[in-house]
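Internal QA ticket QA-208
Title: Verify multi-chain structure generation after dependency bump
Assignee: T.L.

Test input:
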Amino acid sequence: MEQIRSAEILCVGTELLLGDIVNTNAALMAERLAAFGIPVYRQTVVGDNPARLRTALEEAYSRADTVFLSGGLGPTCDDLTKETVAEYFGLPLYLDEESLERIKKYFSDIGRRMPDNNIKQAMIPEGAMIFRNDWGTAPAICIEKDRKTAILLPGPPVEIEQIWFNRVEPYLHLRSGSVIRSKNVHILNMGESAVEEVLRDMMLAGGDLTVAPYAKDGEVRVRVSARAADENTADALCDKAIEKIRETEVGSFIYGIDVGSAENALLIKLRAAGETLAVAESCTGGLLAKRITDIAGCSDVFAGGCVTYSNEAKMRLLGVKHDTLDKHTAVSAETAAEMARGVRLALGTSMGLATTGYAGPGGGTPEDPVGTVYVAVSTAEGERVKRLSMSPLRSRAYIRYSAATQALGLGLGLK
Amino acid sequence: MEQIRSAEILCVGTELLLGDIVNTNAALMAERLAAFGIPVYRQTVVGDNPARLRTALEEAYSRADTVFLSGGLGPTCDDLTKETVAEYFGLPLYLDEESLERIKKYFSDIGRRMPDNNIKQAMIPEGAMIFRNDWGTAPAICIEKDRKTAILLPGPPVEIEQIWFNRVEPYLHLRSGSVIRSKNVHILNMGESAVEEVLRDMMLAGGDLTVAPYAKDGEVRVRVSARAADENTADALCDKAIEKIRETEVGSFIYGIDVGSAENALLIKLRAAGETLAVAESCTGGLLAKRITDIAGCSDVFAGGCVTYSNEAKMRLLGVKHDTLDKHTAVSAETAAEMARGVRLALGTSMGLATTGYAGPGGGTPEDPVGTVYVAVSTAEGERVKRLSMSPLRSRAYIRYSAATQALGLGLGLK
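Actual output:
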């Protein structure tokens, strides 16, 4: 088959139409197709209704040569995506023994017998490719016919994500006759427009390299993507571009390449140095610890933390001085420093991080309004504190998330 | 205008098409339209492209009489939703002085001058209704013409949510000639299918009352909606249905009505009783404290907590006995109880909650595999521990979230 010229995303599921779940699958597919440079001009959601799905499918193929579908591959009689698409292409279904065995094994591995319903999931349109699902029951399916392509993916986010990266992307590489590799440059403390201004020439250069910044949750991520004949060449192109970015003024704000998040970057850094971490949280209220412990295997670095919401808790658990709270209040550079130091000593770690501030919507003082947060890092060498001043119009969730990120940034040695 | 017979959702934004953001607006609108009993058979996403938006709009009106649009009301030249829809309806735009003044005031309130760009946001299609935006700059707009209705809403989730509940729903009430009120019954420790089985008759009864269960994050929520001529009658219908639910075996699993979440329900309960709370977390690693402190104003009840990831931290901060850890390990009923009691005493609160378990993917023992979590509550009356046994196939995020919810459930006095 030739290259994909344009694609559409078609998500199937009554639970999406009723708003019971948020469509994260569409965002995943859209983001990755954008990275592949495949234009997508429309996303559509329909319910588990064969007639409406059929219409949406016909419309999609009137505009694009490839349709990525998610959902409706389940074992129940409501799940009719595969049947509808097979009918559209005029392909009968056959029972694929290999898929059936795999599904049976999936159930036996969790100590259950496969319900008969699930046999349906092993029915495959004739001539279709099977993208094996090692993370659930329904195999993903790829149909190429009449210069049209349909990629059918299961609805559960965990399954679609794994199948996408492990099955769909290698296929897209084959189809494009070239490989696209992407690397993410993680940037903290430099705004998106400032990053754009510095990198404008690279962004506009075109060709086989694309450089695109994205702002999210108070951070900027620059995605560098390169197209080449093979992975090594594409990787090398990315690396070269990243080196170029490092040489600009953006360079000193980079905290990692493909590290996923600031918390992961800090764990990697501390692990490599044989160091350990504890956190003391006031305004972030557990979010900082939660983000660190989201990462499986963090326990070799992360000892624990204290959420000290009350002044009492700050004194009891962290040894913050009554005098400090009295003189400088709980939201102050002095308190933040004592918290970071206190938790480091209490848990016997090499690094302590702390947050204290006004996350809103209530609270704050004229000098330190809502959005003011002090973050601190403590090591054997001493304490360093940073005062953040976010817009009071920011949401409580944003202020808390950014404060946690900034504390991690201190741990990473950023300004 | 007559009643809305069917609607579609049309979200506009290149950032959605590129997958840079997840479409939470569609879920919000879909969920609420479902509550109103307005059928929605399709959701569409297009970019900030007038020609493609125009086509999608024409297609939507070929299937439905009402289209809810979000996005593309911003001040930049890319934002063309309003212009495109006005053109579709043949309506010229005029400068609405009242909206302009409001936008100017919005900027002056945050100490800035309104950029000239924003004048564009005060341009309104002739004859349209304005849904005032008190949470951002772009007013929402409602056009009724030729038996078609268009509701244009701003893209930022914070704004659309406020405008939806404060402006759109009252309008929908007017349009339907009746009022729809919904109440959410929060249920823990009873599965969705078990709830469905018990409530089947109510679910199938039809008429002005709808009863629909939803499973999410290990909980079940039953949405009870009633249509009536006025709010009081609708509320009374809901209350009556809820009373009926309480009398079934579902009743003992209900932890609140319209409380939003288990953490909020617990805060309300403790606040009413003048009690205070502290938490000790191992496997949930800060998530429990984070969820509690997500709620503004929690500090009158919540004192703080300890994230004790290491055994060392459990002993140092919570006074868990070395002997207990040695004999029963960190993941045991004994450790959970000591943690809950320890944090209650350390922070001097009336209640302590604790979690300890294997969130995976690594870890676990043959007796306590991944998915095993002990949650505990401690009060002056003593400790109560519950052993959870979740499927090891569940994600780390699910196991942690459910464990936190179950700890809250113990605090709420659930079995």
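Spot checks passed. Chain B touches chain A through 78 residues (CB under 8 Å).
Status: verified.
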